[in-house]
Amino acid sequence: MEYRKLIACHECDLLFCKPAKVTGHVASCSRCGAGMTAAEGADLPLDRTCALTIAALITFCIAQAFPVIELHTSGMTSRATLFGAVRSLWAGDMRLVAIMVFCASILFPLIELLAFLYVLAPLRIGKVPPHFNGMLRVVQFVRPWGMVEVFMLGVLVTIVKMVSIAEVIPGPGLFALGALTVMLAVVATLDLGGLWDICDEIKLSRPAGIRWQKISRRLAGPNGLFRSHKAWSTAFVTARDAGLVACHTCGLVQKHIEDQSRQCCSRCGSVLHERRPESLTRTVSLLLAAALAYIPANLLPIMHATSLGRAEDDTILGGVAYFWTSGDWPLAVVVFVASVVVPILKLVILTLLTVAARRGSAWRLRERASLYRLVERVGRWSMLDVFVVALTVTLVHFGSLAVITAGSGALAFGAVVILTMLASHQFDPRLTWDNVDSKQHVLRGDE
């Protein structure tokens, strides 16, 4: 069989015959429900995406050059820019927090846009740029860590928080940041798997345009027949069962060479693994570190405020209480969910997934797969409090009148966010399904 006609689910390793390209539908795995990004999209709009990427780069520069918020009080003015927030944290001896904010709000989004434009511009004229493989790998690596949308929410929370102590004026950078958030969300919808297909077609001297045909939302099974959403299936074949391995970077399915200690993808050059090495051990180690860091993150102050000679410390729960007592209960709920509920949820869910995978449990497989995807999606939003601290420290710096500095709790909380995100990335979701009999496990392919 031609392996290039196969695709494998990245979460349960189930093999499918690669269908004709889909238009107007979202393909998903019929066993675990994961999205099949290597087989979705419709006639990839390279011209439109390239233009949008250029516009996003211009907007990014505007967001960097102009203030996001201006604060006026007692004849004094304070301004906050993205880079100014980083500089304030750095000057306040919170350099690790400054690096977190810089990478999440400035460096990684910029790298993603530049690498994306480098790839798209030549492809739209039918050429493959040098280092194509490396650039797409860079995009895939930095995309989960760019958090412009979380920073935007942090700006809105900071505005509400500052209204009670000073006159808040939105700056041009705020509107640019809002537009950039929307643009990056649209750019992120482009399926990177389709770019690998375009690259292959160009190398084979085929037309670069991809023509898609409308098919069922569910992908074809290993027998080449499309499964209806009403159908039952008992013939699951995984890539491992077939002696194959799928590249997690470009999605290419290829034969697994057992006697080769370090097998690389024949298309993109990434290292191939049937299962991520020491996945459970690394996940458990990161979870333990995150759990230990979560204690000081809640006990230590995330901000130190000095006003007219009076000092006051602010913890995460103290910030939630402040919004609640001041009548801004919707923001209190948002901050509580992002800073308290989500970190605990990630720790509990990842612990459950790790223990179940270690024991080889077949309990609630589909639900556990959904929980893993939930952790992947919401993990980044816990960074909200760190961004609020960065902006507040930048804005409230009025000499003897009022000064706010970052506390050690912000560093501990930032460590919790990063450690839990690393833990979810280290966990291999295919381990959830490895002890399930792929030929006898019956699962309904619901929509």
Features:
447 residues, mainly alpha, Butyryl-CoA Dehydrogenase, subunit A, domain 3, 3-stranded antiparallel sheet, 12 strands, 49% helix, globular, disordered C terminus
Quick structural overview:
By secondary structure, this protein is mainly alpha-helical. The protein is built from 13 helices and 12 strands. It is globular.
CATH topology of the domain at 276-429: Butyryl-CoA Dehydrogenase, subunit A, domain 3
Helix fraction by DSSP (H/I, runs of at least 4): 40-55%
What is the rounded Rg? 24 Å
Q: In terms of per-residue confidence, which ranges show pLDDT below 50 for 5 or more consecutive residues?
A: 206-234, 438-447
Strand portion, in percent? 5-15%
Q: How widely separated are the two ends? A: 29 Å
Strand line-up in the sheet with most strands = 4-3-5
Q: Provide the CATH architecture of the domain at 276-429.
A: Up-down Bundle
Sheet/helix structural class: mainly alpha
By DSSP, the count of extended strands is: 12
By DSSP (H or I, 4+ residues per run), the number of helices equals: 13
From N to C, what is the helix and strand string?
EEHEEHHHHEHHEEEHEEHHHHEHE
Ordered list of secondary-structure elements with their pairings:
Layout lengths: L5 E3 L6 E3 L28 H20 L3 E5 L2 E5 L1 H10 L3 H29 L8 H11 L5 H16 L3 E4 L1 H16 L4 H12 L28 E2 L10 E3 L6 E3 L23 H21 L3 E5 L2 E5 L1 H10 L3 H31 L5 H14 L5 H12 L6 E5 L1 H19 L16 E2 L3
Antiparallel strand pairs: 1-2, 3-4, 3-5, 6-12, 7-8, 9-10, 9-11
